[in-house]
Amino acid sequence: MSTPTSIFIVDDHPMIKDGLLGYLDDTSLYEIKGVASNGIDAYNQLMKMDVDILLTDIQMPIMDGIELVKKLRLEKPDQKIIVLSMFSEAQFIKRMLQLGVMGYVLKNASKAELRQAIDLVAQGGQYYSAEVTGVIMNKLRGSGKKALNQLVIVLTQREKEILHFILRQKSNQEIAEELFISPRTVEAHKRNLLEKTGSKNVAGLVIYAIDNQLFEEF
């Protein structure tokens, strides 16, 4: 029997927290290790435990989700984080992606979509709701096109293949199976992509690829 994915929930709305517990606590696939109503409480609890996934809102009293993620990035840089918010504005989405969250899901998501996001992020992938992806792409496209000649020269064909899979929200294991290589090799290519593009994390690669319009469908 596989180990359940451990989750910590941060949201200041009791109904949302109760709903999330109902979504996730009715199966052996997930284990809720803690809940909090603000960023300070969440931060203090998370400093005393390890969880697979942090599921956090943005707007909260005392300390909001943005500040919470910033503090955790310093103390627990490998923490996998999914934002669950009603905010679909580009400034919130882009800020959270820049901070390195691996998922951004709107609160109108179905139970199935939320579970899909958690499962993908737990496996090392990323998940962004369709509306979120649309918002950020439109915003970045509106900022103007950049020259692509240098990007074509810098990125190898295999790196471009892997970057394409990253934008399609594939996990390391899924990319490895598609390309008939090992997950370790995929991770090595990701490190090279981060270095070449100057990105700090995988979310940065997503922004970089969309901003530079490397792939027509994105």
Short structural description:
The chain is an alpha/beta fold. The chain contains eleven helices and six strands.
Q: What fraction strand?
A: 5-15%
Poorly predicted segments: 144-153
Main sheet summary: 6 strands, parallel
Q: What helical percentage do the residues reach?
A: 40-55%
Number of strands: 6
Any overview of this molecule?
The protein has 218 residues and is α/β, with parallel strands linked by helices. It is 53% helix and 13% strand. The protein has eleven helices and six strands. The protein has a six-stranded parallel β-sheet, sandwiched between helices. α8 packs across α10, α9 crosses α10 and α10 crosses α11. The radius of gyration is 17 Å and the shape is globular. About 5% of the residues have low confidence.
Keywords:
218 residues; alpha/beta; 6-stranded parallel beta sheet; 11 helices; 6 strands
